[in-house]
């Protein structure tokens, strides 16, 4: 075995765990889940059936990632984050009969490479979080988040941009629509459509 699983964790036999990954105490990895290389699944975290995670993802303690979520490479999921999978949840049908797995259609959260989801935030499926975006702690995401966007609040709204370093970008005073990372100096350009792209 080329990965580490603590004795108190539950990992289904059909789950695939990548080389160098770690699954900590009381975590649960359900059937058919796929974790890439170098992933860390913290204490008490839950990874649902068939969830797919790329390489070098981090799920902090008590994060709940419900199927059919898809995480790209390098995704950070903070403590107690919830990725939901039912847009219209009910315990029972209109006749009062308890709903089962086949009585509803699961919808998922998709998180692109490098994005970060802050502690205790909730992503209400179906939504897509763009590349290198950052969701602030405690936010509730109800609509798609663009690449590099910084979103906060309930419901989450964009208040700025972040770069690859995770630092809030600053608009250059001499170039409208050009944003700079104060840490790395890397430049980004805002389009007329309201998206952000890396400059060459």
What's a quick, concise take on this entry?
This protein has 200 residues and is mainly beta. The chain is built from no helices and 26 strands.
SSE layout and pairings?
Blueprint: E1 4-5, E2 10-11, E3 16-17, E4 22-23, E5 28-29, E6 34-35, E7 40-41, E8 46-47, E9 52-53, E10 58-59, E11 64-65, E12 70-71, E13 76-77, E14 82-83, E15 109-111, E16 116-117, E17 122-123, E18 127-129, E19 134-135, E20 140-141, E21 149-152, E22 157-161, E23 170-171, E24 178-180, E25 187-190, E26 196-198
Parallel strand pairs: 1-4, 2-5, 3-6, 4-7, 5-8, 6-9, 7-10, 8-11, 9-12, 10-13, 11-14, 12-15, 13-16, 14-17, 15-18, 16-19, 17-20, 19-21
Antiparallel strand pairs: 21-22, 23-24, 24-25, 25-26
Essential attributes:
single chain; 200 residues; mainly beta; nine-stranded mixed β-sheet; seven-stranded parallel β-sheet; globular
């Amino acid at each position: 075995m080329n990965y580490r699983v603590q004795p108190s964790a539950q990992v289904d036999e059909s789950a695939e765990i990548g080389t160098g990954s770690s699954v900590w105490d009381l975590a649960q990895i359900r059937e058919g889940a796929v974790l890439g290389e170098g992933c860390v699944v913290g204490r008490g975290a839950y990874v649902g059936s068939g969830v797919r995670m790329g390489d070098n993802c981090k799920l902090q303690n008590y994060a709940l990632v419900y199927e059919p979520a898809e995480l790209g490479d390098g995704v950070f999921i903070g403590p107690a984050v919830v990725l939901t999978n039912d847009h219209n949840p009910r315990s029972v049908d209109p006749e009062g009969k308890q709903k089962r797995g086949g009585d509803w259609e699961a919808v998922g959260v998709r998180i692109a490479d490098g994005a970060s989801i802050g502690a205790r935030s909730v992503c209400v499926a179906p939504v897509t979080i763009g590349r290198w975006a950052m969701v602030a702690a405690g936010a509730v995401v109800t609509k798609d988040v663009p690449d590099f966007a910084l979103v906060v609040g309930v419901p989450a709204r964009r208040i700025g941009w972040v770069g690859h370093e995770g630092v809030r970008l600053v608009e250059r005073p001499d170039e409208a629509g050009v944003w700079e990372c104060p840490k790395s100096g890397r430049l980004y350009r805002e389009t007329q459509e309201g998206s952000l792209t890396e400059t060459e």
